[in-house]
Amino acid sequence: SGKNGKILLTRSLPVFDQTSEKQVEIIVTEANLISDAREQSRRMSSKLIEGGILQLIYFSSEFARKGIHELLEVFERSPVNPLLANVVVVDGSPKELIETAHEFKDKPRPAFYVNQLLENNRRDAYIPETRVYNFDIDYFAEGIDPVAPRIKLSENAIEVTGSALFSGDRMVGEIDPKWTGMLLAMMDEKKSTEYVYNQPGLEPPAGERKTGIAVLIREAKRQIGVNIKNNLPVFRINLTFETAISEYKWDDMNKDEVQKQLEKKLSDSITDECNGLLKYMQKVGSDPIGMGEIIRSKYYSYWKTVDWKEVYKQADITADCKVNIMRYGAIN
Q1: Please, what are the domains in the chain?
Q2: Tens-binned pLDDT, residue by residue, of the chain (332 aa)
């Protein structure tokens, strides 16, 4: 935010002039409306400034907590504006992130760098894919909330920090990349991700330093059951994960009892992670899985009689996860 409650808008534009020392032109404006800030930018830059070339829209987490839909409206109303632009929440100042990223010596132009960073982390299920159009779809739907990726400025890089949870258009919570992978599985997003288990019970033999186990979740299958009990919804989320061992020190995986023991430990651990995440989302009042949509489609008469935002926080929602280890290495 700028002074006196105005919007502080920072634009980063590529410079294609080979005689210029700078690869990027940065324009900073303050206004009450995005359209006004854009007009100011046009009066300050020799380049044609249009929304249609926009790739990334950053919001500070402070700003996102107040609501972002009013600002996204300008991108929805004009046919030249980019409904495919990424919506991203920044831990800290977007202005500082843009200005500092411009000075990175070992990175490509900031827009290319961040686009590739987002693409890589979406593939690994560390963040969701959130564009203007699907943020709007979830915002306007009655029984589901948006979710967006989070990034921050580190010492010599930009780092993905997980996801921002929304209630309507207001950010109400934050989760790390590990929980984001669990969330995407419960959202029935077909993505692979890595899960690291370092809990008690997997201590190495004497003399070994490596502890725990890393598995690649290759596929997640979701089923959700729901009914109404004592005038409150009861949800049961069943997840089945097909996995492959990524890293594990000992060589007993060819023994059925060892594999079953590991599957049980992993199943229990991921179940605990998912249930912890579900409780947190209920606490902050964010429903990115779309439990409300499930109730609205199956129990519409009930849906019409309740305040879903309040009922969601009281609903009985639990997950049960089963891990199957399908592969444990090319050698054994």
Answers
A1: 1-175 (no CATH), 181-332 (3.30.300.210)
A2: 555 667 887 877 666 555 555 567 777 777 777 666 566 656 555 555 555 567 899 999 999 999 999 888 877 776 666 688 899 999 999 999 988 988 888 888 888 899 999 999 999 999 999 999 999 999 999 999 999 999 999 988 999 999 999 999 999 999 999 999 999 999 999 778 999 888 655 555 555 555 678 889 999 999 999 999 999 999 999 999 999 988 776 556 667 888 898 899 999 999 999 999 999 999 999 999 999 999 999 999 999 999 999 999 999 999 999 999 987 755 55
How many C-beta neighbours within 10 Å does residue 109 have?
16
Would you state the torsion angle of the CA atoms of residues 120, 244, 262, 213, taken in this order, to the nearest 10 degrees? Answer: -50
Look at the block and give the residue holding tokens 């049961």: 236
* Cα dihedral 321/129/91/281 (nearest 10): -40
Compute the distance between CA of residue 272 and CA of residue 182 in angstroms, rounded to an integer: 11
List, in sequence order, every residue forming a beta bridge with 28; answer none if it has no partner. Answer: 10
285: left (phi over 0), alpha (psi -120 to 50) or beta: left
* Virtual torsion, Cα 287, 90, 86, 120, nearest 10 deg: -90
153 close to 96: Cβ distance less than 8 angstroms: yes
Length of the chain: 332
